[in-house]
């Protein structure tokens, strides 16, 4: 990865009016509606940003949106990148580095995930307290990583305690159920077998998905405080496993989305 490429991406966005955003937000599958909350939006499609990867998943639209929410400047990624699309870890995390160079001081992440913890049900939200990287690689495993920050990054507390606690309080104040747990990130795009769900439970995962962890690793590399929420769209009970229905997963994500938007909006107001 070259710093010059990042600088070109950032210069392009600055020329469009992306001016010192405070908060970066990554929206997961079926969770794109937060952009409707943005005042005075400026849109940059990924395919117009120099060196930016292109979104290929049909329910990821592929644009960066800049503007303000609750009086704070935000930049929102509507559509993220995944290993299962054929991207590498540097592609997947490139936008995080761009948002950081634009000036963000905090990062919010959302995703759709399956519930491994059978006390959690579809339609629940889960604050990610920790994660397990099962993607078989690292976005920091490249030759000149030390140009961008130290090579050996501490991951003892990858998610920001202060923002996480604020989100728990906000959920309580607004009567929103917010679970907490460990997110396991796998490659995909195939869903898990019964045996794999059993393995994930033994490993200590409460939810499983195909994103988020690479972005979190890079955000820690950049000393960016992170808060992350999974919308649980299916129940991964190996003893009663039904064939996956992607349409239903998207529908549940969209149904739960207003609550997630409320949480993020209130947290932005609180910061």
TrEMBL record:
CDD domains: PNP-EcPNPII_like (cd09009)
GO molecular function: purine-nucleoside phosphorylase activity
Top enzyme category: transferase
EC nos: 2.4.2.1
Keywords annotated in UniProt: Glycosyltransferase, Transferase
Lipid biosynthesis in keyword set: no
Keyword Transferase carried by entry: yes
Domain Nucleoside phosphorylase, chain residue ranges per copy: 23-269
Pathway: Purine metabolism; purine nucleoside salvage
Source taxon at top rank: Bacteria
Described function: The purine nucleoside phosphorylases catalyze the phosphorolytic breakdown of the N-glycosidic bond in the beta-(deoxy)ribonucleoside molecules, with the formation of the corresponding free purine bases and pentose-1-phosphate.
Protein family: Belongs to the PNP/MTAP phosphorylase family.
Name of this protein: Purine nucleoside phosphorylase
Species in which this protein is naturally found: Maribacter cobaltidurans
């Amino acid at each position: 990865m070259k710093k010059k490429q990042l600088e070109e991406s950032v210069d392009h966005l600055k020329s469009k009016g992306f001016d010192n955003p405070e908060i970066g937000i990554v929206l997961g599958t079926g969770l794109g509606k937060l952009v409707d909350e943005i005042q005075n939006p400026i849109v940059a499609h990924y395919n117009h940003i120099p060196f930016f990867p292109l979104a290929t998943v049909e329910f990821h639209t592929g644009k960066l949106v800049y503007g303000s929410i609750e009086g704070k400047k935000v930049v929102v990624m509507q559509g993220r990148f995944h290993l299962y699309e054929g991207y590498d870890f540097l592609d997947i995390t490139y936008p995080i580095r761009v948002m950081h160079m634009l000036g963000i001081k905090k990062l919010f992440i959302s995703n759709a995930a399956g519930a491994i913890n059978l006390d959690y049900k579809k339609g629940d939200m889960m604050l990610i307290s920790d994660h397990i990287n099962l993607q078989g690689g690292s976005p920091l495993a490249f030759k000149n990583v030390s140009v961008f920050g130290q090579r050996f990054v501490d991951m003892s507390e990858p998610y920001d305690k202060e923002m996480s606690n604020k989100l728990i309080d906000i959920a309580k104040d607004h009567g929103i159920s917010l679970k907490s747990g460990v997110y396991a990130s796998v490659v995909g795009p195939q869903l898990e077998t019964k045996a794999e769900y059993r393995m994930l439970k033994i490993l200590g995962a409460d939810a499983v998905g195909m994103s988020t962890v690479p972005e979190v690793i890079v955000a820690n590399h950049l000393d960016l405080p992170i808060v992350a929420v999974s919308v649980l769209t299916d129940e991964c009970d190996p003893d009663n496993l039904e064939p996956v229905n992607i349409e239903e997963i998207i529908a549940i994500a969209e149904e739960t989305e207003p609550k997630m938007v409320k949480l993020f909006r209130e947290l932005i107001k609180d910061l």
